[in-house]
Design goal:
Number of domains: 1
Number of strands: 0
Number of helices: 4
Radius of gyration: 20 Å
Distance between the termini: 78 Å
Strand content: under 5%
Order of helices and strands: HHHH
C-alpha cells in the first residue's frame, strides 16, 4: 500500500512537471513562460520529493530539506529571470498594456551635450 501511494504521488509530480514543460512551450511571451515554468515545476518537484519520502522513509529528513530549498530558490530565481528579461527589454506580448516596473524606474540621465 505504501508503494502504491508513493508511486501515485510521484506520478502526480511528473504530470505537473510535464505540464510545466508544455506551458513553457505554449505561452506567448517571456513573462508567462517564467510564471508557468516556475509554479508548475515547483509543485511537481515537491510532489516527486514527497512521493520519494513515502517510498523511502529513511530519506525523509533529507528530502524535506530539499523541499525547503526548492521553496526558497524557485521564486527567487523566477524573480531574477523576470527582472533580467525586463532589463533586456525583450519583446512583450501585444496584450500587455501596463508596465508598472517601467513606471517606477527613474529615467536614465541624458548623454546629449548641453
Amino acid at each position: 500500500m505504501q508503494q502504491l501511494i508513493g508511486s501515485l504521488i510521484v506520478l502526480g509530480g511528473a504530470v505537473f512537471l510535464l505540464s510545466a514543460g508544455l506551458g513553457v512551450l505554449r505561452m506567448p511571451d517571456s513573462y508567462n513562460r517564467i510564471q508557468t515554468g516556475t509554479k508548475a515545476s515547483t509543485l511537481g518537484t515537491i510532489l516527486v520529493l514527497l512521493g520519494l519520502a513515502v517510498l523511502h522513509p529513511e530519506w525523509t529528513w533529507k528530502l524535506l530539506i530539499l523541499i525547503f530549498f526548492v521553496l526558497l530558490t524557485n521564486p527567487v530565481s523566477s524573480h531574477a529571470l523576470a527582472r533580467a528579461t525586463h532589463a533586456a527589454r525583450t519583446s512583450e506580448d501585444e496584450l500587455m498594456v501596463v508596465d508598472r516596473l517601467d513606471e517606477s524606474e527613474p529615467e536614465p540621465p541624458s548623454t546629449e551635450p548641453r
